Amino acid sequence: MGDGAKGTVTSLDALFPAEEASRAARRVEEAISERRGELRRLRGFAADNAALVSLVQKLPDELSHDIMVPFGGAAFFPGRLIHTNEFMVLLGEGYYAERTAKQTAEILRRRGKDLEAQIESLKATMLDLEAEAKFFNSTAAEAAEGLVEIREDYVEENQEKVSEPGSPSSKHEDSLDKPNDKDEEYARIMARLDELEKEESEAESELEKEESVAESASRDDEEEDDAGDVDAAPSDEDEDEDEVEDAVGSDEDEDVSEDDTWGNKETKSVLQKTRVQEMLDLTAAKPPADYKQVHEKAPIVETKVQSAAKAVSFNLDNEQSHGQQKPHPLPPESRYSAQRTGTSSQIQNISSAGRKAFTGSVIEHDHCLPPIQSPNITSLEQPSSSNPSKRVSRFKMQKGNR
Amino acid sequence: MDEIRLRQEKVEKFEGFVDRRLKPDLVNAIAQRSDLKRNIENLEQNGVTSFQSMVNLGSEVYMQADVPDTRRIFVDIGLGFHVEFTWSEALEFISVREARLARYVKASESYFRYQLNDANTL
After folding, report:
1. Is Secreted among this UniProt entry's keywords (chain A) (predicted)?
2. Closest CA to A385 of A367, A371, A400
């Protein structure tokens, strides 16, 4: 559980103490029973009303009826009902209306409708209350069982979310692990990266081969688009790494190491995406100076359109940001694949954000630009190429040659 | 000692209950009787033989009713029975009833007070 991950383990008990939950449930149940009583009363009224309506309609049938006339509360007089078509209806506030049987029946019907509406609304309220009660009850039961809510933030090792000085009600252990979390997390991530990279490289090896062939063949847009830098990647990696290290702050260290692994392969792994996000977080702190360099970074994961979902080139961001987006379904690109497609660009942006740490050389590459624009590219690239130390991709240099 | 206290509490509770629930009923009944008595006396005094009134049909819907002969009265004697009385008989009955009710009220009061004292002394 949360090994290394800064997570909070919150026992439901803490969030919703069993007692409180059951108390709340009881309260809600009381409210529900109140409503039920109300409902019963209203229904009674409605029934009385209906009976009265029928009575009012029957009385005028006779001229008079023999009845027992109540006298006070405890005595009766034998008598007769007279004027059987005249009814005195109480309108409220001491006002009465003398009406005929038909009119009285109408009044009563309207009252009945009113009652029905009230009953409906009351029923709706009761339903809500019942749902609430159910929730409380289930929560109480869960809390009693000791259900635990585990929430782990996806945090980069560097970011010490110290905010969780031991999740409030978490189980102890988390806090203990805090100091080791970073290392553990880092190791964990590295391992994952390695795995993913392996997978990716295997899958991409073929593609890469093709691409590299194509690259050497021509300097076309395709090349630009392609991850022509596959070859260059490895060598550049070192440079990148250096840059990375320099550029990156202490926090980036971990990223650097990650870069190593990354740079080697064009990571198309899903992991990369996560990584990217991680990087993003990391780099978020850094000044996004590396706009341009981003693509220099070895582990630029150019997200190919296809692999849009996957790897994100950290460095690509810059390129993308430049708006150089070639809607090419780029094969696994090298970091220099500035020609990432729009989608990749998005991802790249993310990745580049992560890579931003490398202040290194600011290489402006309009990789995405079509050949027509090569002159522009060249001009742009030249400055970059002027920095041999910077991991200027051979690709770039090639571009510059154009 | 605890037991005594418990009993005391119980007694108090019962007393309160009776006071609250039963007493008002008694008082009500007494009031009714007295009202009735007054009304009958009124009728007799004024020599009313017949009158008209409004009868509540339910939900405050009234209809005129006519009492042609007031000499006969049906008085509720409890347990759902109504006895046909003449005025004088009715009045007599009512006074008797009233006395009984008053005695009952007093008796219950003293009974509970006695219980309370009992608990206290224990």
Report:
1. no
2. A400
Q: In this structure, how many other beta carbons lie within 10 angstroms of the beta carbon of residue A182? A: 18
Q: Name the β-bridge partners of A149.
A: A10
CATH number, domain at A40? Answer: 1.10.287.370
Please list every residue in chain B whose beta carbon sits closer than 8 Å to the beta carbon of residue A88. Answer: 54, 61-63
CA A101 to chain centre: 65
**If you ran DSSP here, which 8-state letter would residue B18 be given?**
I
pLDDT of residue A334: 42
- Greatest Cα pair distance, chain B, in angstroms, is 68
Please, which pLDDT band fits residue A199 given cuts at 50, 70 and 90? Answer: confident
In 3D, which of A308, A356, A357, A366 has the Cα closest to residue A333? A308
**Which value does ipTM take for this structure?**
0.71
Asked whether residue A96 is domain-assigned, the answer is: yes
CB A200 within 8 A of CB A266: yes
pLDDT tens digit string along A114-167? 999 999 998 898 888 888 888 887 877 777 776 677 777 776 666 544 444 433
Average pLDDT over residues A2-31: 69
pLDDT band at A276 (very low <50, low <70, confident <90, very high): low
What is the chain B residue with the closest CA to A98?
B62
B27 close to A (CB below 8 A): no
Overall domain count for chain A: 1
pLDDT in tens, B75-95: 888 788 888 888 788 888 888
End-to-end C-alpha distance for chain B, whole angstroms: 8
Strand A75-81, strand A87-92: pairing: unpaired
Q: Say whether A80 and B63 touch across the interface (CB within 8 A).
A: no
Pick the CATH number of B1-119 from 1.10.287.370, 3.30.1330.40, 3.20.20.70, 3.40.50.300: 1.10.287.370
The two structure tokens encoding residue A123: 């029923």
Kindly list the domain boundaries of chain B, sorted by start residue.
Answer: 1-119
Using the Cβ of B36 and the Cβ atoms of chain A, whether some distance falls under 8 Å is answered with: yes
* Percent helix / strand / coil, chain B, rounded to 5: 65, 20, 15
Chain B residues lying within 8 Å of A84, measured CB to CB? 63
Q: Is residue A21 part of a domain?
A: yes
Cα(A291)–Cα(A320) distance, integer angstroms: 9
